[in-house]
Amino acid sequence: MTPPVTDDCWLRYEEVTDERRHEAYRTYCANAYVSVGAPELGAVRDELRRGLGEILGRTPHLWQHPPRSADGFLAVGTPEEMQVIHDSVVVDAVDALADGGFHVKATEWEGANVLVVTASTDRGLVYGTFHLLRHLSLGRPLDGLDVFEEPATADRFVDHWDNPFRRSVERGYAGLSLFDVETLPNVDERYVEYARLLASVGVDGLVVNNVNTEIPDRPSANDAMSELGGWRLLEPRYLEKLAALASVFRRYGIRLALSVNFGAPERLGGLDTADPNDEAVERWWAEKATEVYEYVPDFAGFLVKADSEGQPGPYDYDADHVDGANVLARALEPHGGRVWWRAFVYGSHSDRAVQQHETFEPLDGAFHDNVTVQVKNGPIDFQPREPVSPVFGQMPETDLALELQITGEYTGQHVHACYHVPMWKEVLEFDTDPEGHGRRVADLLTEAGSGLAGVGGPGDDPNWTGHYLAQANLYGYGRLAWDPDLDTATVTDEWVRQTFGHDPEVVETVTDVMHDSWPAVVDYSTGGLGLMHMMYNGEARLENHYDPAPGEWPGYTGATADGIGRDRNARGNGYAQQYPEALAERYDDPETCPEELLLFFHHLPWDHTLDDGRTVVQTLYDNCFAGVAAARDLRDRWDSLDGRVDEQRFRHVAERFDEQVVQAERWCRTLTAFFYEHSGVPDEHGRVPADD
């Protein structure tokens, strides 16, 4: 059932109160001449009614011709459709824009003030409209406006890990799945609201189901029901439902994709094998792809997790990942579809960090042109902080996608406030070879066939993400996927002002809270210095990744009586040597290794002295307590906004901060006791209980 209240997130569209600004906006936008030539244009007209109606305090007039009685008007369409636009822009420059690109320009036409939103594609008109509404929501001037924008990356996907038949969400912290298979093809209005949110930040693709397709969605004593795993979505009865969902998102320029099970030819097709080199298997995938496109003509493609964490894959048939990806790619190629093949493969090494580069780098250049290898930002698993995966920069002949986690699996699960944009910017700005070709991760993602994938979309919680402040991660992901060169300050300021308004004290306080939240979580949940996997894991169905339990992860903490950390260097398992020489040398020496990654690459004595004169163990103690102090400070700063933020959002976030502080204290106690238990070294400030 649809929740009674749905939050508008950053699409609040508050009325402009400045009289001069309001008059300028009214002149350009009270009348709008909007194309009606495609489904996306229906979405444009709806959004203009909604957005301009709120910003101007009155519903705009929407015309199908240039209004002659007005002082000015907004024109939205392509140069080929509208004479006013053709006369107002450089048509060749508009035609040269990448798919999704747009041009927004304030000009004059036949004596009237005209604001033009144009593009070479209908998707670009959607993005251009949202750009204009963002510009107005931020209170920016229209006079002299002349903007060309196009997406820097080809693919900008959100990967839901939703289990469609039970509506549960793996790593979901905002209620049940948005996607209710049982009620489709009836369309819930909430799908429209979600499409608006995604399109407003330039997301162009959506994977609707869990990559862990082998996991049954509905445990039951009924064997038939227990087999309803996510891979069943390839059946015709569910493709019909997918077609209804696709029709909603298509209006906003968003294509749907599916996670598929590599063993589908056996599970669904009745074959006795899923061997990618078997002709019958190749034929089955080709026929299935054709069937999918009959239901969803603009289907984006398949996302695959194979040979990892219990999922079937080409290794089951003595084949490799090129064989596995390419058989699907050949099936999708005639229809313009793409395969996103996840590089998160581990199981044959005692340290999962080693396996991805070792597996995929030798395959560079062998993948089909419509295969994108999708690589997590780090080699472990969406940790609060870890090094950038060495796969980036090491596969120049392969299309790569950067996989980021929008949801907060290891950063407080949307109970704790943790803003991911600063972490993502570190990854995007990372130089993959500082003494070689010097290409940033961001540069690698701007090539055709490359892009970004954000794991973990909203749920059916009325505020979408379970924590109002977690909305910033979805917003920030979309903005960085569109333009990886946007800086953190710009993204944050946009989100804060659109979400909470322009009160200077609110803007400053919320901005500071967001920017300080990630360092706090790193400190109290890991101790810093590159440690990771400190959380409770537990039994398979009780796994929560929320509570502290560092003792469960000896292979990651490397804690012994003589020291802590893992030797991933030349003296250890050689992981550091997977990087180009300049980086390998930097990481291999504890004197040059960045302090924030020190214990990821090195097992060091507890009394090893760092640059500031403190020992490793004392730094770990200090970081944990500093994280708690920071969490308390975040809570206090938020509490100072009482009366300046609406009661519902203020109370919700304040209560979450109360829980975050309690949990930060708990993590600190657990981790510092763990460090003391192994080191036997007391905290020099007496904060950690020691033996009598």
TrEMBL record:
The keyword Hydrolase applies. The lineage of its organism: Archaea, Methanobacteriati, Methanobacteriota, Stenosarchaea group, Halobacteria. GO terms for cellular component: extracellular region. SUPFAM superfamilies: (Trans)glycosidases, beta-N-acetylhexosaminidase-like domain. This is Alpha-glucuronidase. GO terms for molecular function: alpha-glucuronidase activity; xylan alpha-1,2-glucuronosidase activity. Keywords: Carbohydrate metabolism, Glycosidase, Hydrolase, Polysaccharide degradation, Xylan degradation. It comes from Halomarina oriensis. Gene3D superfamilies: Alpha-glucuronidase, C-terminal domain, Chitobiase/beta-hexosaminidase domain 2-like, Glycosidases. InterPro entries: A-glucoronidase_C_sf, GH, Glyco_hydro_67_aGlcAse_N, Glyco_hydro_67_C, Glyco_hydro_67_cat, Hex-like_dom2. The keyword Ligase does not apply. Residues 465-687 form the Glycosyl hydrolase family 67 C-terminal domain. Pfam families: Glyco_hydro_67C, Glyco_hydro_67M, Glyco_hydro_67N. Residues 9-132 form the Alpha glucuronidase N-terminal domain. GO terms for biological process: xylan catabolic process. Belongs to the glycosyl hydrolase 67 family. It comes from the Archaea. Residues 139-464 form the Glycosyl hydrolase family 67 catalytic domain.
